[in-house]
Write a structure and sequence with these properties.
Layout lengths: L7 H11 L4 H4 L21 H12 L7 E2 L13 H6 L2 H4 L11 H18 L3 E2 L6 H16 L4 E4 L4 H12 L5 E4 L10 H7 L6 E5 L10 H10 L3 E6 L16 E5 L15 E5 L12 E5 L5 E5 L22 H38 L5 E2 L9 E5 L4 H10 L2 E2 L2 E2 L10 E5 L6 H21 L1
Parallel strand pairs: 1-13, 3-4, 3-5, 5-6, 6-7
Antiparallel strand pairs: 2-8, 7-8, 9-10, 11-12, 12-15, 14-15
Helix pairs in contact: 6-11, 7-8, 11-13, 12-13
């Protein structure tokens, strides 16, 4: 009765109300072969203490962890314990949209601080705090460029995250917005500037690039901006690795920046929720989707915070809305705010340098193995690099898993022309020992291949 609160008499009354004589009569429309005519095969009920013991015993099987060289838009960084301690406070964890400003000043201020930090990081004038993640934020940024320019074409670099491009394709399909992809230089891994210049025209609303791009390579943003602006198009820069901004020059020349802030203290959590954001120049702020918190002064002269420029369909006519992004991402934005506050400017720079050093050591060590080589050289990169190991990733991946290491992401699915290339990422949580172990496994695999030949 604890989980099935209806009594037999109540069930009979309900059946009588709908004209059914029995439960079997109620479900008679379901073919007999799909009906279960036996008791469920489930274990007996357990006491609470037994359930706790069961899960404690099960948890002991997770004592061996894996060291991951996976990146590709989702990054494993150390999360200070203070983040969860603060975001789990009731006033943050249980709050929803801060419509009633007079009783949600704490949430509004947290969002305002987040916007301020993101604006400083990206080199933009203003930022929001309401995108679901980096992929939807990127698509919304292109839609924003369309509204600003009144044009209906986009040029998209193939070096943008493939899944971001898929999300953008879904958006543009029903917007009547053709988007053409621009290839990359096979030596540097950067966008092909000559191909981009040939693609951009007076009909182009947005040029979309990512930096560091999907290969971990830092794009030449000033050169790309010059090509875009020469034809009156807006430059949209996507950033999937926010920690890079601790050392990489912000994309000042961009008109709109779409960023995934997951790296800033947001757990991987099997893929979400993450923390998307759009930042832009002040002149375009009225076309920016999502929530924007502004600072003001009340009638007594005290500082206060309010939602401002709310151009979502909840507030204005649907046809005039800039977006249908309605969720409140304040909690994950708060995680990023705490993370950035804890690290500070110098700490973020040190963290970025640490990532840069780890990736450099990993790239040099892994590419030194027989049969391995770095696919792209001649342009700076951050904490990711593309490695061709000579043999198919499917062959050495199980060997790495045997020593509790998850290797790089195979690229053949998205870039068949790159063959056996894989994308590797090394953040501060990867140790020198992890890198050396991975190199030893790849070296042993190369020897086996050589002997087999």
């Amino acid at each position: 009765m604890r989980y099935l609160p209806k009594s037999d008499a109540e069930r009979e009354q309900m059946l009588a109300e709908i004209g059914a004589r029995s439960i079997d009569d109620l479900f008679a429309v379901i073919p007999a072969e799909y009906r279960l005519n036996r008791d469920l095969d489930v274990p007996r009920q357990h006491a609470e203490s037994e359930i706790i013991d069961y899960f404690r015993n099960a948890a002991t099987k997770n004592t061996v962890g894996y060291y991951s060289f996976l990146g590709a838009g989702s990054y494993r960084h150390y999360r200070p314990v203070i983040i969860d301690s603060l975001v789990q406070r009731g006033e943050f964890l249980t709050s929803y949209t801060p419509y009633q400003a007079e009783i949600t000043q704490g949430t509004l201020q947290a969002i305002f601080e987040f916007q301020t930090m993101i604006a400083e990081l990206t080199g933009m004038d203003v930022a929001n705090a309401s995108m679901y993640d980096g992929s939807t934020g990127t698509a919304e940024a292109v839609m924003m460029a369309v509204r600003v320019t009144g044009r209906h074409k986009a040029a998209v670099a193939r070096t943008v995250h493939p899944e971001y491009r898929e999300v953008l394709a879904t958006y543009t399909k029903y917007q009547g917005l053709p988007s053409n992809e621009v290839g990359f230089d096979r030596r540097t891994g950067r966008i092909d500037l000559a191909a981009l210049e040939a693609e951009v025209s007076e009909e182009t609303a947005a040029v979309l690039v990512q930096s560091p791009n999907f290969f971990g390579v830092i794009e030449d943003i000033p050169a790309i901006a010059q090509i875009a602006h020469a034809k009156g198009a807006l430059l949209v820069v996507a950033i999937t690795e926010a920690i890079s901004l601790g050392i990489v020059r912000p994309p000042f020349e961009a008109d709109i920046v779409a960023m995934e802030a997951q790296s800033c203290g947001v757990a991987l959590s099997y893929g979400g929720p993450f923390c998307g954001v759009i930042a832009t120049k002040e002149q375009y702020v009225r076309q920016m989707p999502g929530r924007l918190v502004g600072q003001t002064v009340d009638r007594d002269g005290y500082r206060g915070f309010v939602l401002t420029l709310s151009t979502r369909e909840q507030h204005i006519r649907r046809e005039k809305a800039t977006s249908n992004i309605c969720t409140n991402q304040a909690l994950v934005a708060l995680m990023a705010t705490i993370f950035l506050t804890v690290y500070g400017k110098e700490g973020l720079r040190e963290l970025a340098v640490h990532n840069l050093a780890k990736a450099d050591y990993a790239a040099r060590t892994l590419s030194a193995q027989r049969g391995a080589r770095l696919v792209f050289e001649g342009a700076p990169s951050f904490n990711e690099f593309v490695l061709d190991t000579g043999e198919a990733p499917e062959l050495w991946t199980p060997r790495l898993l045997d020593v509790n290491i998850a290797g790089g992401v195979p690229l053949r699915h998205w870039y068949p022309e790159l063959g056996n290339a894989t994308l590797w990422c090394a953040t501060e949580v990867i140790t020198r020992e992890n890198i050396d172990t991975a190199a030893q496994v790849l070296a042993a695999a190369a020897v086996e291949v050589q002997e087999a030949c």
